[in-house]
């Protein structure tokens, strides 16, 4: 393992060992950049390898394509201090893959089948699941709706990350153009930057709406489970 490598350790869950992978970026100096929870909310931090490993073996995560180490480190360091952890759309694996390959994906979520269905009719499924009727059928509809929301969030998050990257790219282009006294090119670049900024804002709003949908699903699921408990 070396500087800029994507690495992971197996972490326990609910009293069971080695349930899920926790990912990070190896800095090559005994430290790792990763989503670190500590005693509070998760935050992207640079911690010691020992803190990252928590006594477990550390493994390299192999990808078919990746950025050069300097760019991987630049991307990882650019998000230090971020507090936007989301299990479905922005977990530790999303972050590490984004740093390493530019793709904001979590293979673990995909392995759970969240890409098996096409996004289709979220609102309808939610409304049906919330209605009175067969609770077993309602639970199945809720499961489908949750999967569809997760797929939508994953896709929108990728588009949002790309729009942010494009916005930063055009900002750099504008700065370089100004350094060369090319105001015409700088204006054109800034126009493109504004376009991607608006796109990012629109996608962010859609992500917030999906997050609200997720809350609604959880509330409805709790009501259905309550019905089953007291039936």
From TrEMBL:
GO terms for biological process: N-acylphosphatidylethanolamine metabolic process. Pfam families: LRAT, PspA_IM30. One of its GO terms (cellular component) is cytoplasm. Residues 186-220 form a coiled coil. It comes from the Bacteria. GO terms for molecular function: N-acyltransferase activity; phospholipase A1 activity; phospholipase A2 activity. Keywords: Acyltransferase, Coiled coil, Hydrolase, Lipid metabolism, Transferase. Residues 12-108 form the LRAT domain. Belongs to the PspA/Vipp/IM30 family. This is Lecithin retinol acyltransferase family protein. The lineage of its organism: Bacteria, Bacillati, Cyanobacteriota, Cyanophyceae, Oculatellales.
């Amino acid at each position: 393992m070396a500087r800029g490598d994507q690495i992971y350790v197996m972490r326990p869950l609910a009293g069971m060992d080695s349930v899920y992978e926790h990912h990070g970026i190896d800095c090559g100096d005994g430290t790792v950049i990763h989503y670190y929870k500590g005693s509070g909310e998760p935050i992207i931090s640079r911690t010691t390898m020992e803190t990252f490993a928590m006594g477990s073996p550390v493994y390299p995560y192999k990808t078919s394509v990746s950025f050069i180490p300097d760019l991987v480190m630049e991307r990882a360091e650019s998000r230090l201090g971020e507090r936007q952890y989301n299990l479905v759309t922005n977990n530790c694996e999303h972050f590490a893959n984004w740093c390493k390959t530019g793709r904001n994906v979590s293979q673990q979520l995909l392995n759970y089948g969240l890409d098996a269905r096409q996004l289709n009719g979220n609102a309808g499924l939610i409304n049906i699941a919330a209605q009175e009727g067969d609770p077993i059928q309602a639970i199945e509809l809720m499961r489908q709706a949750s999967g569809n929301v997760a797929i939508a969030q994953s896709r929108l998050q990728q588009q949002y990350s790309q729009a942010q990257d494009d916005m930063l790219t055009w900002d750099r282009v504008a700065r370089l153009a100004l350094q060369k006294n090319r105001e015409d090119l700088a204006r054109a670049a800034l126009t493109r930057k504004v376009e991607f900024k608006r796109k990012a804002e629109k996608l962010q709003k859609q992500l917030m709406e999906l997050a609200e949908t997720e809350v609604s699903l959880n509330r409805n699921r709790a009501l259905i489970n309550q019905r089953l408990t007291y039936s």
